[in-house]
Amino acid sequence: MSFAFDAPRTKRFKALVRQYPDRRSLALPLLHMAQDQEGHISRDVLLALAEMLKISPAELFDTVSFYSMFNLEPKGKYLLQVCQTLSCSLAGADLVVDHIGAKFKLKPGETTADGRFTLLKVECLGSCGTAPVVQINDDYYEKMTVDKVGRVLEKLS
Amino acid sequence: MPLLKIDHQELEVAAGSQVLEAALAAGIEIPHYCYHPALSVVGSCRMCIVEVEGMPKLQTACSTPIGELPADRKVDGKYDMVVHTESEKVVAARKLMLEFLLLNHPLDCPVCDQAGECFLQDYSFKYGSAHSRFIEEKRVRPAEDLGSGVAINHDRCIMCTRCVRFTREITGTDELFVMDRGYSNRIAVFDGLPLDNPLAGNVADICPVGALLLKDYMHTTRVWHLSHTESVCNECASGCSITVDARDNKIYRIISRENPQANGYFICDYGRYSFHKYADSPLTRPLQRTKDGWEMIDWDTAYRQVLEQVQATGGKGAVRALASPTFPNEPNFVLGQFMARLSDRKNIALLPTLKEDDQEFPGGFRISGEKGGNLRGVQAMVPGLAAAMKSLMRGEPGVLIALDGDGRAHLTGELKRLLELVAFKVVVASMPSDLTAQADLVLPVATPYAREGTMTNDKGLVQWLQPALHPAGEVRPDWQVIAELGQLLTGEGHLYTCAGDVTWKINQTTPGYSQITRFRLGRTGQLSGSEAA
Q1: Which fold has domain A78-156?
Q2: Which of A43, A59, A62 lies closest to B191 in CB terms?
Q3: Which end of chain A lies in a sparser environment, N or C, as judged by fewer CB atoms within 10 Å?
Q4: Whole-angstrom distance, CA of residue B501 vs CA of residue B448
Q5: Residue B175 and residue A58: Cβ atoms within 8 Å?
Q6: What is the average per-residue pLDDT within A28-50?
Q7: What is this model's ipTM?
Q8: Nearest-CA neighbor of B119 among B189, B51, B198, B207?
Q9: Residue B532: its pLDDT value, please?
């Protein structure tokens, strides 16, 4: 299965190309666009983007694998990322992880069978003042407790 | 030019050159892993750290350029930079760096092929600590095949990325990359796109540790059992400098040898693995064609045969010869000499060899498409060769003496016609080939890596071939066989006792070779001149 950008993203790509005299510098913007569209960066995406960027797929994968925010595997509709760094950990992030895990019968890193939820433990989300933090897709849910996370998940499912 | 003081030595260096470059050029060793003169500088291994006076922290010598200071700010009134490479601070830092590099290293030197030529071993011995403070479990990963006969042992890798930069900058094929980061960092190839280029073997040569290994050489012998012979690759007209590593008269591997005038730092895989095809040649004694196949005979009988056939088929004037661009200058020169006596060089032509397109790489490396490696040499040794094939077709059928091409002879229509025309075919060869298959008499000579003499590459660089092997059986050196044939046919003795004697004669008589002597050639050769005849 080959990959191609949809119409609005193709337009965006054409605009971006003009802004980057060195084509390979466009790697990160294109990867973000592709992940937005596909949900994850598949082998086909890498091959297609490498051709657009005029670099080898190996060099592009070098970059992709460096950044943890690019998903190489398909993820659920809702990506639940629980911060596990110091502040969040002290404020009870583990309880939140355990609660989500028990509710969906998930271990961190796994996706529910219906493909709706993926649970991840991640490093610092940069919101220590409102620990513990759960990032669901692009939104932060702050000062989470077992009760609060339960209510949020109820709304989603 | 800036004046650099490095330890106790004063060096004048070009402005803008790096400390490590300057030190290596002056023969001062600064330990390093990621730096390689042919590759871009990344400064990632941190082994080349040195102390620079006036700089608060240790600096990586590979990425510290030397500039010129204003007159009033010079150190000690005259130096632009003062560097200490072995100060207490530096040695202590190196010890810590080595401890880091060895955190997950399996320390499996007893079974590692790199042992004996491993910089991790050398510098650990010199600077490292006998103990690691790492008490956690070491990371263990399986070895992988990267393709093109190269395997990677991830546990031994120190992530210097020389191999990655090699595929990006030298071959331009870009197969290798660094996957993931931090603890799970490793060298990898993209799924379905393995290492696949004709220079791939070099990544094992430039790997400073035992991570990248040639499967061809793996677990065959230990490096300290090998004898290293500095020689030249014959496979094409690029004439790369190589080191042939052999043991008990058997070649185990060929590695590249630095020569800025020829190949730079690398060699191609065709040359690297070429020794396999020359191993165990069945040609060990002269062979005579009989009704039902081949008969082994001794040299005297063989030479008598040649003389009888010459007398029986048109005499000395009808003797034809083919010089070969796959043989060194010496046998070709002797052949040209005696053919000049017999028929004023009218009856000598060039053996056709394979021609392909040159292969060029972005890093500047070139594999010549001319598979007769010594083409330029032969043309200098025997003037007027180019147009001569046709003139061989005239006259009575006589004896043909052909220097064979180690299997690289190209049987063109013209050559086939010549072979049909002549009455008796003497082929001087190291390997069975299409040409020896048609011969009446085969005279065995040393295979390419058992040869001695000079080769001239397509840029005119003359290099000395050192024999890495003893010839097998009754095989004789090529120059000797030709000289003996010449003695037989001209009736005049020759005074050659070794290949070097012929080289000396070449020096005395061949235009452009007056600067070429065995001793001037040294390790990296000498350019032949273009003086007119």
Answers
A1: Glutaredoxin (3.40.30)
A2: A43
A3: N
A4: 19
A5: yes
A6: 94
A7: 0.85
A8: B207
A9: 43
Task: Please give the interface size between A and B, counted as residue pairs whose CB atoms are below 8 Å apart.
Answer: 36
**Which CATH class, in words, describes the domain spanning A7-66?**
mainly alpha
Total length of chain B: 533
Considering only CB atoms, A62 lies closest to which of B177, B192, B193, namely B177
pLDDT of amino acid B455: 94
Domain boundaries, chain A: 7-66, 78-156
Distance of CA A11 to the CA centre of its chain: 24
Q: How far, in Å, CA of A114 to CA of A44, rounded?
A: 24
> From the candidates B177, B187, B191, which should be mutated to test the interface with A, based on the most A CB atoms within 10 A?
B177
Give the gyration radius of chain B's Cα atoms: 28
pLDDT digits (tens, 9 = 90+) for A66-112: 998 899 988 889 999 999 999 999 999 999 999 999 999 989 989 99
pLDDT in tens, B106-143: 999 999 999 999 999 999 999 988 888 999 999 999 99
Phi, psi of B189 (to 5 degrees): -115, 155
CB contact under 8 A, B177 and A43: no
| Rounded Cα–Cα distance for residues B324 and B429 (Å) | 10
Q: Is the pLDDT of residue B5 over 70?
A: yes
pLDDT band at B504, cuts 50/70/90? very high
